[in-house]
Amino acid sequence: MNRLLVPLAAVLLAAVAGCSNTSSVGANGGVAGAAARGTAEDPSTVVATIGDKKITLGDLDKSIRGKLSTLEREHRQKLHELRQGSLEGMVAKQLMEAEAKKRGMSEEDMLRAEVEGKTAAPSDEEIRAFYDQNAGAPGLPPFDQAKERIGQFLTAQKQQKAVMDFLDKLKTDAKVEITLAEPEAPAVHVEAIGPSRGAKDAPVTIVEFSDFECPFCSRANATLTQVEEAYAGKVRVVFRDYPLPFHASAQKAAEAGHCADEQGKFWELHDKMFGNQRALGVDELKGYAKELGLDSAKFDACLDGGKMAEKVSANAEAGEEAGVTGTPAFFINGKLLSGALPFDEFKKVIDAELAKAGVKTAEN
Q1: Can you tell me the distance from the alpha carbon of 251 to that of 108, in angstroms, rounded to the nearest whole number?
Q2: Architecture, CATH, for domain 196-356
Q3: Residue 191 host element (H or E)
Q4: On the CB side of 189, how many CA atoms lie within 13 Å of its CA?
Q5: I need a surface site. Which of 82, 157, 190, 359 has the fewest CB within 10 A?
Q6: pLDDT tens digits for range 247-283
């Protein structure tokens, strides 16, 4: 198969789905393995002594529990991806061998007939369209120089699709069923404290760590509204702050939210700030509070005096301990979802949590 297909080059740059505070924590087998071994060790083991004071492994792990949780999550996902890729390869190999034997021909001849014989060469229009779509890319040569390589690349894409279509047909004919389970994300204990919406006894609690200046948080806010509407009475949403240091207005915006909460207007100001992310200076925040009918003198004094700064810092620290590295971050009954993800990603986790609790969804 490999001799028929030109290796595909990576041509697309993945879009980041959230505002990042740090680079993601790298994980490989050694690091993740060390993290896993650490959780199995005795937390009372003394790892350092300062005079008569001892630091235990439990103390140490508590200080990095967010990073350990991230490593464990990444390790489970990487292990699943490795198993999944190997399983797909094993299935494909067996199907190909069986089909070639049934046809009385070699696998290479079979693939040549299925791929090369059914793949049209890219037209000049297709090549030109691909070139135009990538115009402005660094190092892109003139069209005449790039034309042949683009043609090879598009041919490889078509061949790759033909192979996958052929494999899909073989899987369907053989009634292949993949039952390898997705890894279950480890639950992280996150206190559900702060402004909230939804029933307090809801079977699912979503703790959101967010930044009013982060555009991805604004995008996720619309999705969260969709979640609340779809799961009315079954989901409670709790808001916690995670202002990123490179967002100049995020800290004061977070404080403003708590100042508004003192007067029972958190969610009103919450929506106002997300709707005006380019205007979150102190004067603008005070103006929004006035528009919403808050006691301006009380709100202004709260904001100017930094009354809520400690509360914001405590929320951010809790986020770091839980493994938050960027915004938005959502803990659904302790299961982390990071970034401005679509509704279906929330739905998968919420439905699984409702099933655990024996609560029916709208679909069952």
Answers
A1: 62
A2: 3-Layer(aba) Sandwich (3.40)
A3: none
A4: 2
A5: 82
A6: 999 999 999 999 999 999 999 999 999 999 999 999 9
